[in-house]
UniProtKB/TrEMBL annotation:
Organism: Hyphomicrobium denitrificans (strain ATCC 51888 / DSM 1869 / NCIMB 11706 / TK 0415)
Pfam family, one: Lactamase_B
Name of the protein described by the UniProt record: Beta-lactamase domain protein
GO terms, molecular function: RNA endonuclease activity
Listed InterPro entries: MBL, Metallo-B-lactamas, RibonucZ/Hydroxyglut_hydro, Xnuc_lig_assoc
Amino acid sequence: MSSTFPPVDSWLYPSEAGLFCEPGGFYIDPHRSVDRAIITHGHSDHARSGHGAVLATHETIEIMKVRYGENCAGAFQPLKLGEMITINGVGVRLAPAGHILGSAQVVLEWAGKRAVISGDYKRATDPTCTPFELVPCDVFVTEATFALPVFRHEKAAHEVEKLLGSMAAEPDRPHLIGAYNLGKCQRMIRVIRDAGYSEPIYLHGAVIALTELYKRLGVDLGDVRPATTEDAKSLSGGIVMCPPSALGDRWSRRFGDPVNAFASGWMRVRGRARQHGVELPLVVSDHVDWPELIATVTDVGAEEIWVTHGREDALVHYLATRGIKARALALVGREEEAE
């Protein structure tokens, strides 16, 4: 594209509230309440309540309503993936991010330039959401959650094979699977089903509402039930999904001698597994790993990479050694979910 066009950072830049598109008059994933926000997905470090108006996919809007209440924003505008609209002269569309149900990249076109704000994303197969779409652009804003060469995620189906093998070896012990309550929990259930497991899967109370929402939005998760106190006394050899924090609290002790599993990209680090008392680490992530990250920032063909949400400095340094212009946005308000 012609160099006579103004640079992207003259109209898209970090502000006190978050990443701001000046000509459009809106923010992307702002960390505090604003008049107009575009939300990439429903995780709480990207989707907050209290905005005047929110544009997002239908699924993300429904997730926000479940998490924050029906009136968590002044107004909602759903936008279908791939549909282009114009806001104050800025072209806006949402492209699939492959992170969780409803997750999207925000594609902005203005003054002859295209910027893509990817939010969180992954390239791996996930039967609960639309696959990532590669969008060529001038500026690509990427996460850097697992931006170190040590991080190589396993295929989810492979880790579920480990889980089922453990269940066969320990038929009298329930398996408690710690998984983030939005996205990871539902993905694990679906992959377990795809592996042929048809028995009821039990749910900690904290994961029920979002799991039921996934079902209402068309994701088939099979027979899922609340894990009641009565179930805990009699359940053996079954699967219970729970938040990672529940693995070590009083709730988990009601199951006697369970096998504690944790589905997370961080389980690649043995010290993390030991720290959480995890007997069965499952290396399953809803983010890109190092090879996928490098492939993505190369394939989009952007003139510049903006890095946020994770190991920003490490990725910027690596890209510089490859002759790729990059900089850290250092956005505030980004906390990693218990991935």
